[in-house]
Amino acid sequence: MSRLAICPGSFDPVTFGHLDIIERAAKVFDHVIVAVFNNQSKDPLFTVEERMDLLKSATKDIGNVTVDSHGGLLMDYAREKRAKAIVRGLRAISDFEYELQITSMNRKLNAAVETFFIMTNNKYSFLSSSMVKEVAKYHANVSDLVPEAVDLALQKKFSKSSN
């Protein structure tokens, strides 16, 4: 049986911090599904389809990674895919409290699925999609924070609007 993990997130947009976690998870698990979820508490800049396209572009050279999306609960998706592991990235202690709550609820919903936390590379510990969008909105250079396709997509989104 292969070791399948799901790396969930909103990925709005995908950053080099996300890719760091995805690449490292791909070294541990036989197959990693990067699953785009729509977080109702966030107002996304990119559609689910756009986020999936950007992720597919960013992960195209990682042979054991696929990109998918789901509109419901992560644990329902894990059951559907027969995944036994969830991979989450942690940037700082502040992430841990939030992730602990989510993991505890997920365990209540499906105790057969384990959550694995991967600490981000220190050079990405400050990085978030929200921060990238905020600075890109003001036309700051984010090319060292996101893949080229994401940088271009951000430029296109924000060229349509003024500050």
UniProtKB/TrEMBL annotation:
It is an enzyme of class 2 (transferase). Pathway: Cofactor biosynthesis; coenzyme A biosynthesis; CoA from (R)-pantothenate: step 4/5. One of its GO terms (molecular function) is pantetheine-phosphate adenylyltransferase activity. It catalyses: (R)-4'-phosphopantetheine + ATP + H(+) = 3'-dephospho-CoA + diphosphate. CDD domains: PPAT. The keyword Magnesium applies. GO terms for biological process: coenzyme A biosynthetic process. Keywords: ATP-binding, Coenzyme A biosynthesis, Cytoplasm, Magnesium, Nucleotide-binding, Nucleotidyltransferase, Transferase. Homohexamer. Belongs to the bacterial CoaD family. This is Phosphopantetheine adenylyltransferase. The lineage of its organism: Bacteria, Bacillati, Bacillota, Bacilli, Bacillales. The gene is coaD.
